[in-house]
Amino acid sequence: MFSVGLTGGIGSGKTTVADLFAARGASIVDTDVIAHRITAPGGLAMREIERTFGPDFVAADGSLDRAKMRALVFSDDAARRRLEAITHPLIRAETDREAREAQGAYVIYVVPLLVESGNWKARADRILVVDCPVETQIARVMRRNDFTREQVEAIIARQATREARLAAADDVIVNDAATPAALAAQVDALHQGYLQHAATMR
């Protein structure tokens, strides 16, 4: 099945864009949603996370204590690698399963760290970047997540640069101050192209 890897920096509007594609008949496989599912109470990753990091990183409801884990992995690269060794294989397996079961016209993988991971170019037929200025990202995330500016800047510093994402892109959606209608028009244009690509792969 024809597939698109959708990415963008934090606060760029990936989820909004993915929802617009879903409304037009695309199947969405969102790695962030999968990551939250496997670290929810009883999630596939939780037993190994507790064994590796200890009960302090498990919230009262049995889910991952995200704030505590975020603070650890931002300051400790070895801890980040240990967490990724647990979660990444599970995310990969769930991603593949959802893609196999997809019933849409084509599949869109939503992958926040697509450029950083390095292996998605081989898995997706096209790479779509949702782009906006860094200042727009910061303002959106501060408003949405109640983070400080410094927290958002630290997250952005860990992600690929805007320039690196654009260099990897086959397609770009500009979501700086776009009205809903303008954003939908960009999605419509790409959707028609993706339908044509999908038709040639059947």
Automatic annotation (TrEMBL):
CDD domains: DPCK (cd02022). Pfam families: CoaE (PF01121). Its EC number is 2.7.1.24. GO terms for biological process: coenzyme A biosynthetic process. It catalyses: 3'-dephospho-CoA + ATP = ADP + CoA + H(+). GO terms for cellular component: cytoplasm. GO terms for molecular function: ATP binding; dephospho-CoA kinase activity. Its main location: cytoplasm. ATP binds at G11, S12, G13, K14, T15, T16. Gene3D superfamilies: P-loop containing nucleotide triphosphate hydrolases. It is found in: Cytoplasm. Keywords: ATP-binding, Coenzyme A biosynthesis, Cytoplasm, Kinase, Nucleotide-binding, Transferase. PROSITE patterns: DPCK. Pathway: Cofactor biosynthesis; coenzyme A biosynthesis; CoA from (R)-pantothenate: step 5/5. InterPro entries: Depp_CoAkinase, P-loop_NTPase. Catalyzes the phosphorylation of the 3'-hydroxyl group of dephosphocoenzyme A to form coenzyme A. PANTHER family: BIFUNCTIONAL COENZYME A SYNTHASE-RELATED (PTHR10695:SF46), DEPHOSPHO-COA KINASE-RELATED (PTHR10695). Belongs to the CoaE family. This is Dephospho-CoA kinase. It comes from Burkholderia multivorans. The lineage of its organism: Bacteria, Pseudomonadati, Pseudomonadota, Betaproteobacteria, Burkholderiales. The gene is coaE.
